[in-house]
Design brief:
The complex is a heterodimer.
Chain A lengths: L5 E9 L6 H10 L4 E6 L6 E6 L6 H5 L1 H5 L3 H16 L14 E5 L5 H13 L9 H5 L3 H10 L4 E5 L5 H14 L5 E8 L4 H9 L30 E9 H6 L6 E10 L9 H15 L6 E5 L6 H15 L7 E3 L2 H4 L6 H15 L20 E2 L12 E7 L4 E9 L2
Parallel strand pairs in A: 4-5, 4-6, 9-10, 9-12, 10-11
Antiparallel strand pairs in A: 1-7, 1-8, 2-3, 6-7, 8-13, 12-13
Helix pairs in contact in A: 4-7, 8-14, 11-12
Chain B lengths: L5 H11 L19 H15 L13 H19 L2
Classes of the chains: A alpha/beta, B mainly alpha.
Chain lengths: 416, 84
């Protein structure tokens, strides 16, 4: 641990369980699922899969119609979550101060997938020669970050991390390091994803990791750690955090939700799709060391667990390796059971959930039957079926593990 | 006979949330959140959906009144092309 302390002073979220951070967290604590059956009928072949949609999100209402009209959906939900976090931190959209060193670090795995798919349909299927003039700048992965930097006057840095399911966690880690090094006093960090395009879903289905489901079973199609887990559920969503130099936050009287105390990363250097217990444990140990936190101080882990057979058990093994004898008492849940897997944005949604768990003291559950936990996933104190209220975790981890073997772990500590 | 510009007005209302029929003609588009990129996409959609050619040399409208006039001119131009 070295350098400046980093405060979390603003939170925002647009998710399948709510259109803001407070509503989303409340829904998670109540055990409400945001998953439903998504059906395509205007496609070459009909398709229905469980998915997490931000169905209540109205881009025009959230951003104003002119602004929303120039953005891909991943930027629309990203901008909405980011602006919520910005306002939550007590910051104005128009700069009232010098923001020459402030920045944005964003994560997305698939960027403007919907814009790309619409473009392909236009030129290949409809036979058009012309595409909408903003197709490129809507679809590019850094579109959301660029829009945020322009909107908020952030002159220090504007970066986008595209590291599959670790994208947003690595963006938050990057922002954390900039503040700790003294390069920026304020960073807007997070991620967004809107991958529910027909072609994208077909590609994921080909990988054979998507959970099946029908109208009635879709809300509980994602069952991390359960014996009968059958895969992940794709989702759209976004979340953002305002990270701030601790003394800067205190000087302006900002509310501090929690401290982002450490960040650890590692590379499996092993397999594109099969996670590595050793690689994940390295990232966990790196985060603990970076934060100066002993395993005995960790009271909650928001797991990456997506609901795949191998991945969930490997993650529990990595936690056992990194936390040692403490692992058995550490509360663990995977909120993907409720909000699905928003790929590159997952690390942001789960970081916000982890911060709120630390701030409010309540732990959201993994949805599903607590009695149906897989023995292969035993060894930690699962929060399953119902929330654990009043837990008041002293410190907590948020895990993100990506295809390609890029692992990222964020360590948060209660403020005060 | 002239092309009914109603469809263009509907696109503008859906896309920008601006009802040109009731908007103040002097209202500046920039203050309503409409910048040059927003206009670029709007003009493309109108051209594609209504089958008209606004023309690359057309100066971008700065007010609601100028946008209304542009739509009316385009509508009239379409009818002239059709020989009506």
């Amino acid at each position: 641990m070295s350098g400046r302390r980093v405060a979390v002073t603003g939170l925002g979220m647009v998710s399948p369980v709510g259109t803001n951070a407070a509503d989303s967290f409340a829904a998670l604590l109540e055990g409400r699922s945001g998953l439903r059956l998504l059906s395509f009928t205007d496609t070459p072949h009909p398709l229905s899969v469980p998915a997490g949609l931000c169905a209540d999100f109205d881009p025009g209402a959230a951003l104003g119609k002119p602004r929303a009209s120039t953005l891909d959906r991943f930027s629309q939900i990203g901008a909405a979550a980011a602006l919520e976090a910005w306002r939550d931190a007590g910051l104005a959209e128009k700069p009232a101060e010098d923001r020459a060193t402030w920045g944005v670090a964003w994560g997305t795995g698939m960027g403007g997938a919907l814009t790309m798919e619409r473009g392909y349909r236009e030129v290949y299927t409809a036979g058009r020669e012309r595409l909408a003039p903003l197709t490129v700048v809507q679809a590019m992965n850094n579109a959301c970050a660029a829009h945020l930097a322009i909107s908020l006057g952030l002159g220090g840095s504007c970066g986008t991390h595209s590291v599959a399911c670790s994208s947003a966690a690595m963006a938050i880690g990057d922002a954390f390091r900039r503040i700790r090094a003294g390069a920026s006093p304020v960073m807007l960090a997070g991620g967004s994803e809107a991958p529910l395009a027909y072609g994208v879903i077909r590609a994921w289905l080909a990988l054979q990791v998507i959970a099946p489901g029908d109208e009635s079973s879709a809300p509980h199609a994602c069952r991390p750690f359960q014996r009968d887990r059958a895969g992940l559920v794709l989702a759209e969503g976004s979340a953002a955090l305002v990270l701030e130099d601790w003394t800067h936050a205190e000087a302006r009287g900002a509310r501090i939700y929690a401290e982002l105390a450490g960040y650890g990363e590692s590379s499996d250097h092993a397999n594109l799709v099969r996670p590595s217990r050793e690689g994940q444990a390295r990232a966990l140990r790196a985060a603990l060391a970076d934060a100066g936190l002993a395993p005995s101080t960790i009271d909650y882990v928001n797991a990456h667990a997506t609901g795949t057979r191998d991945g969930d058990a490997i993650e529990i093994g990595a936690l056992a390796d990194a936390l040692g004898a403490e692992a058995a008492r550490v509360a663990v849940s995977s909120t993907k059971s409720a909000h699905g897997h928003p790929l590159g944005a997952a690390g942001a949604l789960e970081a916000v959930v982890t911060v709120l768990a630390v701030h409010r003291g309540d732990l959201p559950p993994t949805l599903g039957d607590a009695a149906a936990l897989d023995p292969d996933c035993a060894g930690v104190a699962h929060v399953a079926g119902a929330a654990r209220r009043g837990a008041r975790p002293r410190a907590a981890l948020s895990n993100s593990f990506a295809f390609g073997g890029s692992n990222a772990v964020l360590a948060f500590r209660a403020a005060g | 006979m002239s092309l009914d510009p109603t469809a263009a007005y509907r696109i503008i209302e859906e896309r920008l949330g601006i009802d040109l029929k009731s908007a103040d003609p002097a209202a500046e588009l920039a203050t309503l959140g409409v910048d040059s990129l927003t206009l670029l996409e709007l003009m493309f959609e109108i051209e594609e959906k209504l089958g008209v050619d606004i023309g690359e040399d057309t100066p971008p409208p700065k007010t609601c009144g100028e946008l209304s006039q542009l739509i009316e001119r385009v509508a009239a131009g379409k009818s002239a092309v059709d020989g009506a």
